[in-house]
Design brief:
Layout (H helix, E strand, L loop, with lengths): L1 E2 L7 H10 L21 H4 L6 E2 L5 H7 L4 H10 L1 H8 L8 E5 H6 L9 E7 L7 E3 L2 H18 L9 E9 L4 E9 L5 E9 L11 E5 H22 L4 E10 L2 E9 L10 H6 L3 H6 L6 H6 L5 E8 L9 E4 L1 H5 L5 E6 L7 E9 L2 H8 L7 E3 L3
Parallel strand pairs: 1-2
Antiparallel strand pairs: 3-6, 4-5, 4-6, 7-8, 7-10, 9-12, 10-11, 12-15, 13-16, 14-15
């Protein structure tokens, strides 16, 4: 069963559903892509065993219609970063973390924490409300602006996706960041559909500007990441569960950051698996298909496949935007595989682009772009 929702539904997802004849929940969003007769009512949908959504906005439907289901329980322990961290404490007993309400956070003594750490909402999405904090001075600076930051988030996502009521403080993990699109099947066995590396511009960058994959990345991390997923499933008892897991590879080992439930890469970015490896992630999950990575990698070259997000800087008033200079922006991408223009008036981004390159320097240069250069605004 597919549940379509904002912020973005790709043509590739819709075409896959229609071609394969998968069931789709009848809601306001799905009616934009399907005839009423093609959709499934909530009453019938509640009897399904497998659910996939392009967006965590659909969590509300699961919680409301299947509150006592195992799937709902799996979502809850995954979406709440504090609960997820507590579940992992058996695997990582020495990992430092602390949960605080917003009130407790504001009243906290900055000397009471173990620096450096990361502060984030217990329920969050992308990098909204995430703050890397190295010392007491930085902690005080964050507190001074946290109310205004929270105000900016209101109305952008439902509370089931981003909720700044409770916050998680957890130790800052040094090392390279990665992400996995995968699912646990009906027996709890993990299947990895893609592995991405998530580079940052500098130590203060927490953005999701770009993720990339390659033959070498898959070969290096497929086995150790699979071994980690086996441990996570043992603690969480996940079944028939699609997810997007972010983690870091550090001197302390492989440490999960967060697991995003009910979906793979958000904004339908998981579609890149089709461009990269010939894997349709939706079909693989719904039909319990497993990639033959040996064959896939044997026929792959050394190119990098990536997606990059053209975000609207927070200092720009969206109402003042005259034009997005897409042609100028795309000159930074040598081989665009798919260009998706996004409604920047209502969303925090203006484009998502899938690309392919032979030189890692292209990816590094995209990290350094100043997005203001591609946005024309009305002069005040």
């Amino acid at each position: 069963m597919f549940i379509l929702n904002n912020p973005y539904v790709s043509d590739f997802l819709v075409e896959t559903i229609k071609k394969q004849g998968y069931k789709v929940l009848d809601n306001e969003i799905s009616r934009n892509y399907f005839e009423k007769s093609e959709l499934t009512s909530s009453e019938v949908a509640k009897t399904e065993e497998k659910f996939y959504s392009n967006s965590e906005n659909s969590i509300d439907w699961i919680v409301e219609n299947l509150p006592d289901s195992e799937f709902s329980k799996m979502i809850k322990i995954s979406k709440d970063k504090a609960l997820f961290r507590k579940m992992l404490s058996k695997i990582y007993p020495d990992y430092y973390f602390k949960e605080l309400t917003l009130f407790e956070l504001k009243k906290a003594n900055s000397k009471d924490f173990k620096y450096p750490f990361v502060l984030k909402p217990c329920v969050g999405f992308l990098s909204f409300g995430v703050y890397p904090i190295k010392n007491e001075v930085e902690f005080e600076k964050v507190l001074s602006k946290i109310d205004s930051d929270i105000e900016k988030l209101k109305g952008v996502f439902p509370l089931s996706v981003v909720d700044c009521t409770n916050f998680l403080i957890e130790e800052m993990i040094e090392g390279e960041e990665f992400a996995i699109d995968a699912y646990f099947d009906g027996e709890g066995k993990a299947t990895i559909l893609n592995i991405f590396q998530h580079p940052f511009f500098d130590e203060n960058d927490v953005s999701d500007r770009i993720y990339y994959s390659s033959k070498e990345i898959i070969k290096t991390y497929l086995k150790p990441f699979n071994e980690l997923l086996d441990k996570i499933e043992k603690e969480g008892n996940y079944k028939n569960f699609p997810f997007h897991l972010e983690l870091r590879v550090s001197q302390k080992g492989i440490i999960p950051i967060e697991i995003n439930p009910m979906r793979f890469c958000g904004w339908c970015i998981t579609d890149i698996a089709q461009f990269s490896w010939g894997i349709n992630p939706y079909v693989y999950f719904m039909e319990n298909k497993k990639p033959n990575w040996d064959d896939i990698l044997k026929n792959a070259n050394d190119d990098y496949f990536y997606f990059t997000i053209g975000d609207v800087p927070s200092n720009i008033d969206k109402n003042s935007i005259k034009e997005i200079k897409y042609d100028k922006y795309l000159k930074n991408i040598s081989n665009p595989l798919d260009v998706r223009k996004i409604d920047y008036k209502t969303k925090p981004v203006f484009a998502i682009v899938f690309g392919r390159c032979a030189d890692i320097n292209e990816i590094k240069s995209l990290l350094a772009l100043n997005m203001n250069e591609f946005i024309a605004v009305e002069k005040q």
